[in-house]
Amino acid sequence: xxxxSLDQYxxxxxxxxxFGNEIRIYDGNRQNLLLFVKQKAFKLKEAITVYADESKSExxxxxxxxxxxxx
Length: 71
Prior knowledge:
Helices cover about 0% and strands about 40% of the residues.
């Protein structure tokens, strides 16, 4: 299954996460974990890392802000 070609995705984010965000992205059936997204807290420039699973063994695209302030 190609994780980028599905028609529907389901995202779950913990509400009571103290530092940073963790988002789990599942297929439309909510059964197969496709991506695990980690956003670091207290960064002046946004830094978001996408992994293939929760073990963080395979890093996929990384998203970084170009500047401190986004418009």
